[in-house]
Amino acid sequence: MMTSAPQPLPAPSEPVPDIEEIRLDRDRRHLHLAFSGRPAVPASLNAPAQRAALSARALRASLSAPALRASLSAPALRAACRCAACVADQARGTFSADFAGVTLTHVAPFGAHGLNLSFSDGHARGVYPFAYLAALAADAAGPDLPEVKP
Q: How many Å is the Cα radius of gyration of the chain?
């Protein structure tokens, strides 16, 4: 079954909320994530001149952003895998997005920037950066409100 084109990963310079909670349900069907409302300062803002360029209004808005909480199902996470094998299968049109009944068998940190997820179908190559998990969580939370300009 062919799926839609894979989501692009967020650019490394985009601020990513800090991860506050990672919890796996007892039935291993859902991974619960909580991100803080305060994004980590992107590497591009490490220089004082670049930090000064941020408007006070933009900085206040980013610091007061609400926390993001999401419950991502194991089948949805398995379908969202961006490992080389899954991306190649998607490009060939041989990737099956039907992962009903798949559960998470293992969740492990992958350095300081993501998680390695293993699934009951034997797939254990998926590395999910926190930036990607935050994007999946935002998608799961629903559509954004339209931008209102003053």
A: 17
Residue range 12-59, pLDDT digits in tens:
555 666 888 999 999 999 999 988 865 444 444 444 444 444 455 444
pLDDT tens digits for range 64-111: 555 788 899 999 999 999 999 999 999 999 998 899 999 999 999 998
Q: What is the DSSP string of the chain?
A: ---PPPPPPPPTTS--EEEEEEEE-TTSSEEEEEEEEEEPPPGGG-SHHHHHTS-HHHHHHHHTPPPEEEEEEHHHHHHT--SHHHHHHHHHT------TT--EEEEEEETTTEEEEEETTS---EEEEHHHHHHHHHHHH-PPPPP---
Distance of alpha carbon 130 from alpha carbon 35, whole angstroms: 9
* Distance separating alpha carbons of residues 81 and 133, to the nearest angstrom: 11
Token readout for 140 is 């799961």
CA 29 to chain centre: 17
**Bridge partners (DSSP) listed for residue 30:** 73
Please name the amino acid found at residue 45.
L
